[in-house]
């Protein structure tokens, strides 16, 4: 399932351009042109990120960010402020109410995608240290050990990071490009097909648990016990 990105922008041409860029990169855009529509759009399934304009009809981006961060069910949603206001005080204000990043207009789609990936990496649960277990397959991020039904599993560092990402992002489909962004990072040049090679190595390493790593034809890969 593609990540849902809520685009809150009152200027239709900019909003439509952002929606197009999101679709091109495998995200699911949802558009809102004012404060009230943005609030309505923050519903289950909740957005994975909000791209939020500062000035909106019916309210401000600052008010919306503050409201989202004050509620338990939405405070985890990362927010990137998009605004023409470039004063340092404005940036500080945006960050203080809970925005995860701040991009000044005009900006390029390339810069936006880089900022989004950086924010996703920062808020990703792959940074957690708790041991993980799915159907007898265990991964301990602290000791860097993997076991299957009590037996130690040997795998390379990339396969370990890939498995860690999958186990903390279950039942969602990720394209090769998205896996590259999350597991390899954006500063490393790796061919998309390299993902397939490491998927094969991971499946071989976990043996009978290879059924957990599922190929979704024409889309990418999913980790699921179902």
The string of secondary-structure elements, in order, is EHEHEEEHEHEHEEEEHEHHEE
- Class by alpha and beta content: alpha/beta
> How many strands, which pairing sense, and closed or not: the largest β-sheet?
5 strands, parallel
User: At the third CATH level, what is the topology name of the largest domain?
Assistant: Rossmann fold
Domain count, please report it: 2
Name the CATH superfamily classification of the largest domain.
Answer: Response regulator
The assembly state of the depicted protein chains is single chain
Can you walk me through this structure?
- Helix content is 39%, strand content 23%.
- The longest helix has 15 residues, at 109-123.
- The protein has eight helices and 14 strands.
- It folds into two domains: 4-123, 3-Layer(aba) Sandwich (Rossmann fold), CATH 3.40.50.2300; 126-223, Arc Repressor Mutant, subunit A (Orthogonal Bundle).
- The protein starts with a strand and ends with a strand.
- Helix 6 (157-168) packs across helix 7 (176-184) and helix 6 (157-168) packs across helix 8 (193-206).
- By secondary structure, it is an alpha/beta fold.
- The strands form four sheets. A five-stranded parallel β-sheet has the order 2-1-3-6-7, sandwiched between helices. A four-stranded antiparallel β-sheet has the order 8-9-10-11, covered by helices on one side.
- It has helices at 12-24, 35-41, 61-69, 88-96, 109-123, 157-168, 176-184, 193-206; strands spanning 4-8, 28-32, 49-53, 55-56, 59-60, 79-83, 101-104, 132-134, 137-140, 145-148, 151-153, 173-174, 213-216, 220-223.
């Amino acid at each position: 399932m593609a990540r849902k990105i809520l685009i809150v922008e009152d200027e239709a041409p900019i909003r439509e351009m952002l929606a197009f860029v999101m679709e091109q990169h495998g995200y699911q855009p949802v558009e809102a042109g004012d404060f009230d529509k943005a609030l309505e759009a923050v519903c289950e399934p909740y957005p994975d990120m909000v791209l939020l304009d500062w000035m909106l009809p019916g309210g401000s981006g600052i008010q919306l960010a503050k409201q989202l961060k004050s509620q338990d069910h939405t405070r985890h949603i990362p927010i990137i402020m998009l605004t023409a206001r470039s004063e340092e005080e404005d940036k500080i204000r945006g960050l203080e109410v809970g925005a995860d990043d701040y991009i000044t207009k005009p900006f390029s789609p390339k810069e936006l995608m880089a900022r989004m990936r950086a924010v996703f990496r920062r808020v990703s649960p792959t940074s957690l240290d708790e041991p993980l277990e799915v159907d007898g397959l265990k991964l301990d991020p602290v000791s860097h050990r993997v076991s299957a039904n009590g037996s130690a599993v040997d795998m390379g560092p990339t396969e370990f990071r890939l498995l860690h990402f999958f186990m903390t992002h279950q039942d969602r489909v990720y394209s090769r490009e998205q896996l590259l962004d999350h597991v390899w990072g954006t500063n490393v040049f790796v061919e998309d097909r390299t993902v397939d090679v490491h998927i094969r190595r991971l499946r071989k390493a976990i043996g009978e648990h290879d059924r957990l790593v599922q190929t979704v034809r024409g889309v990418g890969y999913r980790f699921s016990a179902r």
